[in-house]
Amino acid sequence: MDVVETDEHRDLRAAVGAIAAPFGGAYYAEHARAGQECTELWQALGDAGFIGVNVPEEYGGGGGGLAELTIVCEEIAAKGAPILLLLVTAAISAEVIAEFGSEEQRKEWLPGLASGRTKVVFAITEPNAGSNTHQLATTARRVGDEWVLDGEKYYISGVDTAEALLVVARTGRDESGTAQLSLFLAPTNAPGLTAMPLPVDVMLPERQFTLHFDGVRLPASALVGEEGQGFRQVFHGLNPERITGAALCVGIARYALDRAAQYARDRQVWGRPIGAHQGVAHALAKAKIETELAALMTHRAAALHDRGMPAGEASNMAKYAAAEAAIAAVDAAMQTHGGNGVSAEFGLLPYWGLARLLRIAPVNREMILNFVAQHSLGLPRSY
Q1: Residues ≥6 apart with Cβ < 8 Å to 108
Q2: What is the CA angle 319-321-326, rounded to 5?
Q3: For residue 46, which of 16, 23, 14, 74 has the smallest C-alpha distance?
Q4: Is the torsion defined by CA of 375, 378, 382, 383 positive or negative?
Q5: How far from 257 is each of 66, 208, 213, 253, 373, CA to CA, in Å?
Q6: How far apart are the C-alpha atoms of 101 and 42, rounded to whole Å?
Q7: What is the DSSP letter of 136?
Q8: d(CA 308, CA 102)
Q9: Could you tell me if 346 and 272 are in contact, meaning their C-beta atoms sit under 8 angstroms apart?
Q10: What phi and psi values does residue 319 have, to the nearest 5 degrees?
């Protein structure tokens, strides 16, 4: 792997940054406090072709890969405007539909995903399943030429602005009793589907929902890929979600450290800048080192995915390292600002909330440690 960034990737960073910078931190903080999506920034990125940078060219996308989408996610966050919805629309839905969808599904959904005019969000989590996808209770059963969905999903982002859901449902069990999962494209306005807002105290532009499927009927063509192959299909989307989540964290850390370093250079106490004191400088320097290390692992994971190589270990490690780095960076930035660190004027608190959320989702740090212990170190499974 070449750790030196190409000219094309540097140009992509500059172009994305030029679009995101005029929106910036004040724009994001305002929308996060109000619980309003960053529609104007989303449209600007879509119009420039960056929402669908990883969508194949024949469907209106940029023809790039996850490496390019990772840069987009990192750079908008580094300019102060992280968009969480990119993780589910571009990193999961677009990747899964492009890889496993029928030609009809690709033609129907990918052009809109590429332009940003259409959103397809991901529905997998349930109240009682936690991280154990084998316990998913939402079912899809075949009735004639239709699929009928029943069940409940929990903590589903962006349903209010999406045209469709990529739903993971149980369609049977194998001989050992293990759940067989399948993926479906379900319109958000389908009869029998109810979306209830799920209040959270984290300041986010994106809203969360609980979904109830009560006999939701879908045509046979709603099935994505092969019946019963949902585990394999899901992980083709979950690794990109973890990688782009890591990229968002790296960008958040970069933004917080930029703000903190500027404040530490300008803020004078006892006749000298506070950044001259090691008690301030060392915390920021440590966070900077951790951020750069996380960035390297994030881009390595994206490169592995794009090359069709095993990326699970690197994806999990990147997500772990980047979330830890983001929390440390925002915390150090807030500490550098003193009381101003929690003031609305300086707008740092929304980033701490998002970084803290990304330490839990899309996979929590404990499950990552379980994965590394078992699969990387060969230790006995603990759960």
Answers
A1: none
A2: 90
A3: 16
A4: positive
A5: 25, 29, 44, 6, 32
A6: 25
A7: -
A8: 20
A9: no
A10: -65, -40
- The rounded distance, in Å, linking the Cα atoms of 193 and 150 is 9
Mean pLDDT score of the chain = 96
Q: Which residues of 224-243 are buried (b: 16+ CB within 10 A; e: fewer)?
A: bbebbbbeebbbbbbbbbbb
The radius of gyration of the chain from alpha carbons, rounded to an integer in Å, stands at 21
CB 169 within 8 A of CB 149: yes
Q: Tokens 């994030």 belong to which residue?
A: 298
Q: pLDDT for 270-307, tens place per residue?
A: 999 999 999 999 999 999 999 999 999 999 999 999 99
Q: Which residue's entry shows tokens 């996380």? A: 294
Q: What is the pTM of this model?
A: 0.97
- Cβ neighbours of residue 230 closer than 8 Å, sequence gap 6 or more: 168, 169, 171, 180, 181, 182, 183
Please state the separation of Cα 339 from the chain's center in Å: 31
- What is each CA distance from 342 to 284, 346, 353, in whole angstroms? 18, 7, 12
Query: Helix or strand or coil: residue 212?
Result: strand
For 155, counting Cβ atoms within 10 Å of its Cβ (0-12 exposed, 13-18 middle, 19+ buried), the class is middle
Q: Compute the distance between CA of residue 337 and CA of residue 353 in angstroms, rounded to an integer.
A: 17
> Please, where are the H alpha helices in the chain?
7-20, 24-34, 39-47, 66-78, 86-88, 95-100, 103-115, 230-266, 278-306, 312-337, 349-360, 365-371
Q: What is the largest CA-CA distance in the chain?
A: 80
| Residue with tokens 């997998």, as numbered in its chain | 124
Strand partners, 212: 152, 194
The whole-angstrom separation of Cα 328 and Cα 105 is 42
The dihedral formed by the CA atoms of 29, 330, 241 and 379, expressed in degrees to the nearest 10:
-160
HEC string of 197-208 equals ECCCCCCCCCCE
pLDDT in tens, 148-181: 999 999 999 999 999 999 999 999 988 787 889 9
3-class secondary structure, 141: strand
Q: Interior CA angle at 240 toward 238 and 241, to 5°? A: 60
3-class DSSP state for residue 113?
Answer: helix
